[in-house]
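Can anyone check this?
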Amino acid sequence: MTATTDASTHHDDAPIRTIAEGVFRGRARSRDGEAIILARPGTDYRVELIPASPVDAEPGARLRGEIRVQAARMDVIATGGKYIEPVDGPPRRVAGRIIAIDERANLVHVDAGPFPVACKPHKLQQASQFRVDQLVTMGVSPGAEFHPAPRQDAHPRAGRRD
């Protein structure tokens, strides 16, 4: 399942995966309020995120949404990996390849390995300064958010007019 926005730019017409898909593992208390724990099946990732709107799910349910972080500063790097650090807890560092840029929203979408992450650049930086396919790394401010995606119909073609 993929999602794109009209404001995103990408180097080809392939779908861009900017929506994170994971498994809800429960709730946790954080310094910013109640957090949800989003896990990536087949990995040890259990990322704690502040829900931007209520998440009504039971543990084990699949969740889809946008992970959004505020970058302390985004740096372009020549080599590196794709990750969210730490593996278990609220994100403090994100690194990966830029997959889309939304100049209107001033967001840089990064494939950070287990999940795509929408990164808001530091106030002295703009999304327009970056390019798709660059590798970036950044420290992130506390309060990483989860913006739930609209629920999908059980039948993908239901309600569609082709």
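Reply from J.R.: I decoded it. The chain has one domain: 8-148.
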